[in-house]
Write a structure and sequence with these properties.
This protein is an alpha+beta fold and about 210 residues long. Helix content is about 25%, strand content about 20%. The protein contains 7 helices and 5 strands. The longest helix is centred in the last third of the chain and has 12 residues.
């Protein structure tokens, strides 16, 4: 392998570091709604005490279980979810426990989280608006003349007729293939980015 070749070429082994393996992420749905990101320690300790196999995994120094955020569901503000980065061994353990985690009296369902950054200015993937140097593109109608929040079509009864996705247009798609907002989770380009992310994570490539 590359490490062996470099070592044989005289590069000392202490200068050769293995790249960190990317970790999958999950959403744990059903966290008490009064909890926030400031309560990560409480959430972490509760999950460990009620799901002891996570603690068993964490005895391995390479295991990861890190709470990234706590936020309400888009479909229901009264239900909170914790987004957690975790190592493959813990993800396997959760899967073997029916993709459920106990929290209080609730058996919380667990879903894979394939988060893709999307800019609210140009709608492109991989960065946020604060770092964007590209032209504005409306996430609803794909116009370059205004931002999404200023689109005059957003409260229109025929909004579906004006949907046009910047990202699919840039990818050369036409017709019905672009007739959705750039923020749609059903966007073909968004799904392609998710598949690319999955391919980079060992947990998914082994399943």
């Amino acid at each position: 392998n590359l490490k062996q070749k470099l070592t044989s070429s005289g590069v000392t082994s202490n200068l050769l570091k293995e790249p960190k393996e990317k970790c999958p992420a999950i959403a744990v749905v059903g966290i008490p709604k009064e909890l926030t990101k400031d309560n990560c320690d409480i959430i972490f300790n509760t999950l460990l005490s009620q799901n002891p196999y996570i603690g068993d995994c964490l005895k391995n120094s390479s295991s990861v279980f890190e709470i990234l955020s706590v936020k309400p569901l888009k479909s229901n503000d009264n239900v909170k979810q914790a987004i957690i980065k975790l190592s493959d061994d813990i993800r396997y353990a959760i899967r073997n426990n029916n993709n459920k985690l106990f929290y209080g009296l609730v058996s919380c369902p667990v879903y894979d989280q394939l988060y893709i950054k999307r800019c609210h200015k140009c709608q492109g993937f991989g960065h946020y608006a604060k770092d964007c140097s590209k032209s504005t593109c409306c996430g609803i109608c794909a116009s370059s003349g205004h931002e999404t929040q200023n689109c005059t079509h957003q409260n229109s009864s025929d909004i579906e007729s004006v949907y046009s996705c910047c990202n699919c247009s840039r990818a050369g798609k036409t017709g019905d293939d672009v007739k959705h907002p750039a923020f749609s989770h059903d966007c073909p380009e968004y799904k392609a980015k998710q598949e690319k992310l999955k391919a980079s994570l060992s947990y998914y490539s082994k399943n």
